[in-house]
Design goal:
With 458 residues, the protein is mainly α. The chain is built from 17 helices and four strands. The protein is globular, with a radius of gyration of 24 Å.
Length: 458
């Protein structure tokens, strides 16, 4: 069940993450040029609504369609999504997430049905007209059927959100957000659920607190600071580096293993997150665009001009509350680091059953992929760490990339990923040797991998 939820979440966030730059551009234009912005400009502010109504949903639709059926899938996804855009007065992010992949899947099934049945010389004609005809039909279907349904769903969501806001219950969202983040659903929550609501709110009032609920680095910062003070062994020595990567780099995944080592720490992040949301609510804090990655720097860049005081207070208070709860947990209910090492050793021994030497020949070009949920955050960091170790060891014929765990290339020999993503990695590339880690910065498996690579090249 957890793997299925992760896959679904990855499908949602996978349509948004590649287009984050566009969301940031829209957020900056909004923050600068709308009537309540830093430099109000009526002419430049005319870009805000068309970008949120057309550009961003169409980018999402193209990306979602391309994942299913390459470029043709992206094209038909964009065509069909115009139907839900025109059929509604609200930004159609959810409609794009539905119709982009769905229409590409329909086209893919049609292509499979006629494969080998088209006469030579008519391939281009059939390909172009099939895409155009199916796209036109589905666009009309999307406009008259899907758009009203999504609009109704949006109205229900708005009612639910308004209930929580009106009754000052929004801090309770941390009960769901913080545990889900630790299960590597952070991108799905932020980009699949909260961002569509937040962007619509930005269009209406110029800012949104919903763009902060998951992105707030305070709760994770508190846990990492607690490890700096009361942690043991490698967890304590690696925590300061994790603080920098998390708070300034915005890679929240870095603190997830620290909580997985001691799940009681979820209480600290939940309380810290709730405290931060309460402060944001009291000070009417909001962002003007999606802050990704969730770095304090990107959050400050996306902050609405009257929200800085409340934003800084909210982040600090959430970190302090998280730290205050995490410290006694680590001191009196903390697990000895040997348990972490034993877990890593167990994973390493399990992986050795499919040893590198048995799967890679001496003359082969070794290809290693570091995989995470989105393929852009912790995997990029892990790939950098591995590259430095490989270079230091003098190994020159090794290729190291970072990739989403759901789309690991077939030619990869070795996959390194967090143990929580192990099942998905195995399904994505069942032929690769799988190395599972628990700590992105100081995993003992890195040194074991380097040692094995050196043996192969001897």
């Amino acid at each position: 069940m957890k793997e299925k939820v992760q896959v679904f979440g990855r499908a949602l966030s996978g349509m948004v993450m590649p287009n984050i730059g566009a969301f940031i551009a829209w957020g900056l234009i909004t923050a600068l040029f709308i009537a309540t912005g830093w430099f109000p400009n009526e002419t430049l502010a005319r870009m805000v609504e068309p970008m949120s109504k057309y550009l961003l949903p169409l980018l999402i639709a193209y990306t979602g369609g391309k994942v299913v059926a390459d470029h043709r899938g992206g094209v038909i996804g964009t065509i069909v999504t115009m139907g839900v855009i025109v059929g509604s007065d609200i930004p159609m992010f959810i409609g794009a997430m539905i119709m982009g992949p769905f229409s590409a899947w329909i086209l893919k099934k049609f292509d499979q049905a006629i494969e080998g049945k088209v006469k030579a010389g008519f391939e281009m004609l059939v390909n172009n007209f099939s895409l155009g005809i199916i796209g036109a039909i589905l666009a009309c279907f999307a406009m008259f059927v899907i758009a009203p349904v999504v609009t109704s769903l949006n109205a229900v969501m708005e009612m639910g959100v308004r209930f929580f806001v009106d009754h000052s219950l929004l801090p309770l969202a941390s009960i769901f957000i913080e545990p889900a983040k630790v299960l590597f659903l952070n991108n799905a929550i932020n980009h699949g659920i909260l961002s569509p609501i937040g962007i619509q709110q930005v269009n209406e009032i110029g800012k949104s607190i919903f763009l902060l609920l998951e992105a707030n680095p305070g709760p994770g910062l508190g846990v990492l600071l607690a490890y700096c003070i009361a942690g043991k062994g490698s967890a304590k020595t690696s925590a300061p580096g994790a603080v920098i990567i998390h708070f300034f780099g915005g890679i929240h995944e870095i603190y997830f293993p620290y909580i997985l080592m001691n799940p009681l720490l979820l209480a600290a992040t939940i309380a810290g997150g709730a405290a931060g949301i309460l402060v944001f609510t009291i000070f009417d804090v909001g962002l003007t665009g999606t802050a990704s990655p969730g770095s304090i720097l990107s959050i400050l860049m996306m902050c609405e001009k009257n929200s800085y005081l409340g934003l800084i207070l909210g982040v600090l208070i959430s970190a302090v509350v998280s730290l205050a709860i995490a410290l006694p947990i680590l001191k009196f209910a903390g697990k000895d680091v040997s348990l972490e090492e034993a877990t890593a050793q167990k994973n390493s021994m399990k992986a050795e059953a499919k040893g590198i030497g048995n799967t890679i020949k001496k003359e082969d070009k070794i290809k290693i992929a570091f995989a995470c949920d989105a393929g852009m955050g912790s995997s990029a960091m892990g790939a950098t760490v591995l590259k430095k170790k490989v270079e230091k060891a003098g190994i020159t014929d090794v290729s190291i990339i970072h990739t989403p765990v759901s789309s690991i290339p077939a030619d990869i020999n070795i996959v390194v990923t967090h143990e929580e993503l192990g099942e998905r990695a195995a399904h994505s590339n069942p032929n690769a040797k799988l190395i599972l880690i628990t700590n992105f910065l100081s995993a003992p498996e890195y040194d074991k991998l380097i040692s094995d690579l050196q043996k192969i090249r001897e």
